[in-house]
Amino acid sequence: MPLHHRRILIVEDEYMLAFDLQTELEDAGAVVIGPEPSVARALSRIDREARIDAALLDINLRGEMAFPVADALAARHIPFLFASGYDDTVIGTRYPGVDRCNKPFSKPLLLGSLGRLLDAAPARHP
């Protein structure tokens, strides 16, 4: 179980989608941080948390692009995935190595993508 006890930050502004993501990740054994619905709240959460193993980011949060959140995660060497309906041109040049799960996405695709992301990341300790 690659997500077992892994601390995953969810940054998503759609309440029902965030709730579904939280449930899916918790069912897979993850510890969910958030969900956070805005750039400001996500940045505050990143600053407060002692450990985040990975993050799942919606690109558009109530009309505000989540790039400051992605930059903060990258600066802390926290791996992340974008969860979005946007195409690769929106993130490709700015974040060429970051994977994207297209919305709507399936549970196996999401969990597999997060598992691969965590497997590829160096071990993090609190």
UniProtKB/TrEMBL annotation:
<dbReference type="InterPro" id="IPR001789">
    <property type="entry name" value="Sig_transdc_resp-reg_receiver"/>
</dbReference>
<feature type="domain" description="Response regulatory">
    <location>
        <begin position="7"/>
        <end position="118"/>
    </location>
</feature>
<protein>
    <submittedName>
        <fullName>DNA-binding response OmpR family regulator</fullName>
    </submittedName>
</protein>
<feature type="modified residue" description="4-aspartylphosphate">
    <location>
        <position position="58"/>
    </location>
</feature>
<keyword id="KW-0597">Phosphoprotein</keyword>
<dbReference type="GO" id="GO:0000160">
    <property type="term" value="P:phosphorelay signal transduction system"/>
</dbReference>
<keyword id="KW-0238">DNA-binding</keyword>
<dbReference type="InterPro" id="IPR011006">
    <property type="entry name" value="CheY-like_superfamily"/>
</dbReference>
<dbReference type="GO" id="GO:0003677">
    <property type="term" value="F:DNA binding"/>
</dbReference>
